[in-house]
Amino acid sequence: MRIRSARRETLGLSRAEFAVLKRLSTPERIQDYLNALPANFEIGGQTSLSVREVLRQRRAHCIEGALLAACALWLHGEPPLLMDLRAERDYDHVVALFRRRGYWGAISKTNPPLLRWRDPVYRSLRELAMSYLHEYANKRGQKTLRSYSDSFDLRRLDTKIWVTNGKNCWKVGEILDGLRHRPLLTKRQARMLRLRDVIERKAGALAEHRAPRRR
Predict the structure, then answer these.
(1) 183-190 long-range contacts, CB within 8 A, separation 24+
(2) Is the CB of residue 106 less than 8 Å from the CB of residue 97?
(3) Which of 74, 172, 177, 204 has the smallest number of Cβ neighbours within 10 A?
(4) In this structure, are residues 2 and 175 in contact, taking their beta carbons and an 8 Å threshold?
(5) Model's pTM, two decimal places?
(6) Per-residue confidence at 1, pLDDT binned at 50, 70, 90?
């Protein structure tokens, strides 16, 4: 779905910041950029960095990467949409959404490999969310994904909240958490989920960026 592309003045970005996002002209290029971006291990405390701060600090975790991806999509004429994946006994995960020929795909920032990019082959958001179910697991090997949110269009928010905010933009996370979430499986189905085996756990433990040593 093509929309009016976001202008630099609308986003409030500097020319240098805008130039970085301008080069990320496809979802594939956005995903490559996020993969290369160092992971935000939140050594100094929890963060919710804006697009500007991700570009400045050169680090990101999932929602921060999703914000940058959504901003780059908007800049290139696509709606800046996010979806929240809600887990039990685990962390939630946020992805940026895009569509090709009516099918959904996702851009995702994670340090491990399993919850990243999804090709635009899913007919619905439920199908897309279900593609994360098997890989979404905690350190005990329990599969923890339970529900997914409706899509949220970031154009509903002032860009000062999520694009140029110099402080943590907790509001976006609060909004996503408050959206209606749709269940992916019943309680009975959840009880029947098999624990991940040893090889699956080893695969899930792979990481692209090494955490810095804590002093």
Answers:
(1) 183/146, 183/147, 184/126, 184/129, 184/130, 184/133, 184/145, 184/146, 184/147, 184/148, 185/133, 185/146, 190/88, 190/146
(2) yes
(3) 177
(4) no
(5) 0.96
(6) low
